[in-house]
Amino acid sequence: MPNDRIPMIEWAAWWDTTIRRWENEGFPSGLTFEQSLQYFGLDELHIGYCAPNVPPAPGHGLGVMKNEEDYERLKKDMYSDSIIEWLINSVKNLKSRHDNGEIIIRIWLDGFFWFPRRLFGIEPHLYAFYDYPDLLRRMTQDLCDFNMRALTELFKVMKPDYIGYAEDMSYNHGPMLSKECFDEFILPHYQVLTKFAHEHGVKTLLDSDGDITTMIPWFQTAGIDGVYPLEHQAGVDIVKIRQEYPEFIMLGGYDKMVMNKSEEAIRGEFERILPVMRSGRYIPSVDHQTPPGVSFEDYKLYIKLFKEYCEKAVK
User: Fold this and answer.
1) DSSP for 160-203, written as a single string
2) Which end of the chain is more exposed for a tag (fewer CB within 10 A), N or C?
3) Angle at alpha carbon of residue 112, lines to 109 and 115, rounded to 5°
4) pTM exceeds 0.85 for this model
């Protein structure tokens, strides 16, 4: 990575509809994700994905199971060693570039709120804390065991830059679950896994949309080092978070809603977050995928200013 600026990454980059729009506005078509990052001069963040094999849901927000009998049927194929083997082979192919400092590697695992929701569906999952607590405990323990197996094998091969857990346990008014439910069903598993990661010198970050502000103390108790993407339109204020939690790691936080406004608006957002960029333990990035309302010219201007402010942050 360059030493004259802080990293320039897009943790989730662009919506597919955004890319299709850009291709009609002059962006080269047919580029791979890696080639697209290189085209814009962004640092390469690669993702190693490892999650239980859950069959596709019949529709958005719907589940693939209803009860313990369904879970037993699905469980036979969900935690296969072949999934972990695929992860290990994929990071082996990237190891030399990572060890040379050319790329960043994030390992993406399912979290203990996200995973049961994939199985139950959105609404039944929320009821499951009360309707099926014993089953929910089994599911999260099985996931913890699977994630521990994955990390054990991973750390034999390499140490990624961080572990990222998919959760999405907040919305724009705060947490989707109570602290009591978090403490009972989620906290113990993170304490096991974050301790193991820290013993190997690897940070753990949690991926949750929405306003996670009130949950930061919960995460710290769990050993979680930081959060992304820190959505500004959901009320997340990274300047305030940095003041209250100076050691907390943050990734994201740049308000995507200004990217199609004007140079003044794009620059103004960088000015807002510049003190945090200078504070350390923060990597700026769009606070979710760049939306299709942002033109190719808008994004090129954003990239130009992104580089300018990443250089300012180290001066």
Assistant:
1) -SEEEEE---EETTEESS-HHHIIIIIHHHHHHHHHHHHHTT-E
2) C
3) 70
4) yes
